[in-house]
Amino acid sequence: MKLITVILLFSVLYCVQSKNWLTDSARFLKEAGQGAGDMWRAYRDMREANFKNSDKYFHARGNYDAARRGPGGAWAAKVISDGRESLQFGSSGKDSDADQFANEWGRSGKDPNHFRPRGLDPKY
């Protein structure tokens, strides 16, 4: 419930300067929801693949797919990625930095296949 409230408030603040702030807010919310779905799909695929050293690829892919939705998707990807990294207790700082690098790589529109490990099933 808190996430929905934050998304709603951010979308209103983000779009309030526009003449069409209501439609811009709705578009932002739609993009954020779709971006969250992209992030979930990447996480689900990572768990299903269960392939060694593939987490950076899935981080980059989820962020890439979400950011392609638009500003709402990029925002959702950043919030989810940052939240996920802050909740990963016991993870080394070096691994977290590498994850964040892959997250930013994908969000910036760069090809997530840069992180794709050899032998990963082509369906991913």
From TrEMBL:
Task: Tell me which InterPro entries the record gives.
Answer: Serum_amyloid_A, Synovial_Prolif_Regulator
Region (Disordered) location = 86-124
What are the transmembrane regions?
Answer: none
Listed GO CC annotations: high-density lipoprotein particle
Note the superkingdom of the native organism: Eukaryota
Q: Which residues form the signal peptide?
A: 1-18
GO BP: acute-phase response
Q: Keywords of this protein's UniProt record, alphabetized?
A: Acute phase, HDL, Signal
Feature: compositional bias, Basic and acidic residues: 107-124
**Per its database record, what is this protein's job?**
Major acute phase reactant. Apolipoprotein of the HDL complex.
State the family named in the UniProt similarity comment for this chain.
Belongs to the SAA family.
- What name is this protein filed under? Serum amyloid A protein
Which gene name belongs to this protein?
A: LOC116419740
